[in-house]
Amino acid sequence: MKxxxxxxxxxxxxxxxxxxxxxxxxxTLIRPNADVIIRQQVDRASVDGNYVVPRxxxxxxxxxxxESCFILMVWAFAIMGYKARSIFKEQxxxxxxxxxxxEGSRILVxxxxxxxxxxxxxxxxxxxxxxxxxxxxxxxRFQMTGNIQSANDAVAAVCDTESERLDSELSMIRYxxxxxxxxxxxxxxxxxxxALGQAHEAMQGNIAGVTSSLGVAFNxxxxxxxxxxxxxxxxxxxxxxxxxxxxxxxxxxxxQLLRFLKV
Length: 263
Prior knowledge:
There is one protein chain. By secondary structure, the chain is mostly helical. It contains ten helices and no strands. The chain has one domain. 80% of the residues lie in helices and 0% in strands. The radius of gyration is 28 Å and the shape is rod-shaped. The two termini are 37 Å apart.
């Protein structure tokens, strides 16, 4: 419960920080430069009828929808960084000998207490990690039942539960990857709607407003889809790391504990 509360506070704080940082960048850098570039392009196009307007990154990302996509991208990276840090803590325990069993020796039911003491001596934060919980569960099940298969089932149950928990905790990141292209499509609808509202100006020969509105429509979709691809790539990398952690923890229990158990 405490970890879930801390993660909730972390997500709220990082969302606020992402909004402040990205909005500051857009207000002080992106939009002023975009306005200058647009004015220069309009002036040159009015003088030279053959002038080809180049695409500028400032103009492409200047609108509100693109800013919202960047805010969500930074927020998603912050959440993924928090979860990756937790995974690296879990992986560090895989390199530690939490249960010292000499090769060739066996663990009997009456020996379980002496092997659970090192696990109980860990800090509370470490005891709640996957590997100590799996080892503790296997030893306790073996002590209660005297059955090696029951200990193996206990490890599998803990790992399956952890895998489901890790997968469910990616729901917010999945929501962000869905929300980013959705915001891009909102920008498309807004731009096309504005262009249709200025159709009478285009019929009179002034197409500047229509082209500007269509630029909003296409740029917002382009940026949103691009950002969504980047976020989804890192989300799948995080999911791969989580799956490897569960598999490595289960294999660690098998090689460092279960094979030494003896009835």
